[in-house]
Amino acid sequence: MFIVNVEGAIWKNDKWLIIERSKKEEHAGGLLSLVGGKVDMEGHSSDILERTLKREILEEVGITVKDKLKYVHSTSFVIDTGENVVDIVFLCEHDSGEAFPKSPDEVERVLWLTTDEILSHSNSPIYLKKSIKHAEALLQVHPI
Fold first, then answer.
1. What pTM was estimated for this model as a whole?
2. Host domain of residue 100
3. What is the b/e burial string over 99-138, where b = at least 16 CB atoms within 10 angstroms of the residue's CB?
4. pLDDT digits over 11-42, tens only?
5. CATH of the domain at 130
6. How many folded domains does the chain comprise?
């Protein structure tokens, strides 16, 4: 059984919205990350990944993104508790609101960084760098 997690590579004014995860977080505390979270069980539903991502973005950083989300890539990993996670990343365009750490138990800081700043940041894990590279490549082909 997998935990399903969704993340948004949020683009605005040639920068990505990146969070510094709270040090209280069980997984990757203190590291940089895209905004996102776990998908809840809903039974029969549609657009569950997209709706979950929009909800998580609003809950964690207080902004909305435009409806048209573009699939970037998916990965799997195992967290410290031994649980398997499938992670799906979507390219998102900022719609409204000013990002701030709305959920301090999850988000320490909010940063708008260029691709190069993310790739060279000492707190950027390799999986974040890969996601940003994939999102950047998608942007080149399908600008938002």
1. 0.94
2. 2-141
3. bebbbeebbbebeebebebbeebeebeebbbebbebbbeb
4. 999 999 999 987 776 666 689 999 999 999 88
5. 3.90.79.10
6. 1
